[in-house]
Amino acid sequence: MPIVECVPNFSEGRDRGVIDQVARAIEDVDGASVLDVDPGAATNRTVVTFVGEPEAVLEGAYQGIRAASELIDMRKHSGAHARMGATDVCPFVPVSGITMEECAELARRLGERVGEELGIPVYLYEYAASRPERRNLAQVRAGEYEGLEAKLADPEWAPDFGAAKFNPASGATVIGARKFLIAYNVNLNTRDRKLAHDIALDVREAGRFQRDAAGKIVRDADGVKQRVAGKLAATKAVGWYIDEYDRAQVSINLVDYEVTAPHQAFDTIEEGARERGLRVTGSELVGLIPLDAMLRAGRHYLARQGKSLGIPDRQIVETAIQSLGLRELSEFDPDEKIIEYRLARERQNLIVRTVQGFADELSTDSPAPGGGSVAALNGALSAGLSAMVGNLTHGRKGQEDVWDAMSRLAADAQGLKDWYLEAVDRDTEAFNQVIAAARGRAKTDEEKAAKAVRVKAANRGATTVPLEVLEGCGKLLELAREMATSGNPNSLSDAGVAAWCARTCAEGAYYNVLINLAGLEDDREWARETEARARTALAEVRRSADELTAEIERRLQDA
Question: In whole angstroms, what is the distance from residue 32 CA to residue 22 CA?
Answer without folding.
Answer: 13
